[in-house]
Structures are given as C-alpha cells and as structure tokens.
Amino acid sequence: MIKFDKKIQEEIEEINHNPAIINILEVICQTTGMGFAVVARVTEKRWIALAVKDNINFGLTSGGELNINTTICNEILKHHEPVVVDNFEEDEMYKCHQTPLIYGLKSYISFPIFLKNGDFFGTLCAIDPNPAKVKTAQVRGMFNLFTDLISFHLNAMEEIRVSQIKLEEERKEAKFREQFIAILGHDLRNPVGAINSAVQLQLRLPLDERTFKLAKIIQDSSKRTIGLINTMLDLAQGKLGRGIALNYTAGKKLENTLNEVITELRTISPDRVIEVEMNLKEEIRCDHKRVAQLFSNVLGNALTHGAKDQPVVIRALSNEKGFELIVTNPGTKIPEETMNNLFKPFSRGEITSRHEGLGLGLYIASEIARAHHGKLEAKSNDEYTSMTFSIEKNNIFT
C-alpha cells in the first residue's frame, strides 16, 4: 500500500472525484485519439497520478506512481515548458529518449499546471502506443484551457481548505469565549460579590475615619469591578451571536425609568445643564433595566464629550408610529474615522482617548437596541452630536 501525506491524499480524493476533471480527461482522449490521459502531481522526488482516464490498459490508476526519473514530466518540472510529440520515432529531440522506450509510447503531450501563486503543481498528460497528430494549435489551445481550469479548481480547493482551518480555529475560539464567560459569570463575580457584601457589613460598624475611608475605597472598587464584569459579559453575549438577553418589564412606566437615569447623572455631574422633553403617549414593551443601561451610556457619553458650557438636550417620544429617545450635545464634530467605528467594541478613537474606560459603552448600547429590534444611530456636525435610539411600532406597545 502506497502511503501519501495528508495533503496529497486530499488532492487525490478531491480531483479524482471531480466530474469536471474526469470530463476533461475524456475530452482529451476523444479529441486527440490518444488512449490514456492523466492529471499528475509532480515533485522533485515523486510522480503521482491524481485522476486517470485509461482506454489502453496502461495499468496506472488514481494514486499510482511512476519513477520520476523515467518520465518527461521530470524535465517539465525544471524548464516549465510543454512537450508535444506526434511520433517519437520521427522526433529529432525525443526519438532516443528513455521514456518512450520504457513505456512503449509513440505519441505524447504534457502541459505544466501552475498554482495561482506561480508554483509548479504537476502536469496534464496524454500518451498512446500509436502516433497521433497533436502538434496543432487547436490541441495546444485546448491543453492551455484545461490546465487553466485545473489550476482554478486547485486554487478553489486550497481556499476551501484554508476556510475550513479558519472555521475550526473560530470554533475553538468560540469554545474558549464560552469558557471565559463561565469564569466571569461564576469564578470572578461570586468572590467580588462576597467582598462587596462583607464591606457593606463592615460599614455598618463603628469605624475610625481612616478605616471608614479604606472600607469605602474597597466598596467603590468592588462595585466598579462588578460593573466591568457585567460589561464584559454583555460584550461576550453580543460577540457570540446570541445577543443580549432581555427581561421585559411590566407595570412600570418608561418615563420613570428615564427620569431615574437623568437624576443619577445630574447627581454625578451637578455643574452640567440637562434639558428634558418627554412626550410618551404610548407605553412600549421593553426591558427597562436594559433601556436604562443604554440611556445611561449614551447620556454619560454626551456629558463627557459635549461642550461643558452648553446644555445636553433629551427628547423622548412615543406614539402610534413608534418610540424615539434622542440625546443631543453641542460640541465639535466627531471625526469620520471615529464615526465609522463608534459602535464597535474597544473603539475609543479621538473622542475618548483622554478618558478612562474599555470603549464598550456605545457598543453595548447598540446591542441593547438591536435586542429590542430597534437601532442606535449617531449624527455629528460642527455644531452638535446626537444619538437616537428608535423602535418602530411593530410589537413594541404593551
């Protein structure tokens, strides 16, 4: 049993079972009158038949080998030129060549096959024990066309092979991400939660001033760590394709949810003016906690990057046409390159390069909008920047 490396074995199986290449070999035999045609893999050490059409019982099948030193393909490997012989007995260059003497040949044609990158792959050959008229422009043109088609097929095979390798790598990466999520969801969040609970109990005790400050630092840091873990979990859920999960809220007004976010950020930025216009004629079906997260990210972004001496304007509207939440802040225009990546993870760009954070806020906000079958869009010019969260009327009203 002849053994081949994995790649050659794949080439034998794929080429030998390709109907187009089998048809090419049949056309060659019918057109030239020659009895044997083959696509051969040729290297410095080996000559291997990948696909064969044998009408003369030459005795070589797919996967069969010839001694490379007994073939003319060995010479084609070196000079990269086709060899065409009508009759070896009458050919001045090849009449004493060993190949026709060894294999009992009279006529022969072999054209090199090159890969897309220019590398030599092998040959397309036809042979016969009788003379044949193959030194014609028509036969040469046919072989040129067929070798180009085989080359195209080989390149397609390689691209598929590379794609399969990449797909397998992506599957492994997806599995790794799932494991990473599990670590974040359990192994990290649980101990940080325990730290936060313990420091809350500590803060209820009588503490001296220094100990109280240290406990507050631990509390603030643990809360921030929990927030980062939750943000990374949201990122992972979005990137894995499942999207952010929603828990639809019942019995609560969206206006109250939005006002809670506004109150919180006014407390954090007491020197900023926030103007609000709300006209929510219809309650929408949504996850209030997630909408609050989206709104907090967008409004926080506006307060951070907008002009400090001008108000941030909020408009929230809902009616029979749908829902819109618009946050507008005066300021300089966001660069086009940054705009193109605004809702991509870890894209901080020029507008955020001086500020802390992972660059995930707007990405997660856009994922929350997508989970609600809505969208988050940004517009920016020399006067202001606005972000709009919108949901069309279909299936949003309670």
Automatic annotation (TrEMBL):
Pfam families in alphabetical order: GAF, HATPase_c, HisKA
GO MF terms, alphabetically ordered: ATP binding; phosphorelay response regulator activity; phosphorelay sensor kinase activity; protein kinase activator activity
Keyword Mitochondrion (UniProt): no
InterPro entries assigned to the protein according to its UniProt record, in alphabetical order: BphY/WalK/GraS-like, GAF, GAF-like_dom_sf, HATPase_C_sf, HATPase_dom, His_kinase_dom, HisK_dim/P_dom, HisK_dim/P_sf
Domain Histidine kinase: 183-395
Catalytic activity from the UniProt record: ATP + protein L-histidine = ADP + protein N-phospho-L-histidine
Keyword field: ATP-binding, Kinase, Nucleotide-binding, Phosphoprotein, Transferase, Two-component regulatory system
The keyword Ribonucleoprotein appears for this protein: no
E.C. number(s) listed in UniProt: 2.7.13.3
Enzyme class per UniProt: transferase
GO BP term, example: osmosensory signaling via phosphorelay pathway
CDD domains: HisKA
The protein, known as: histidine kinase
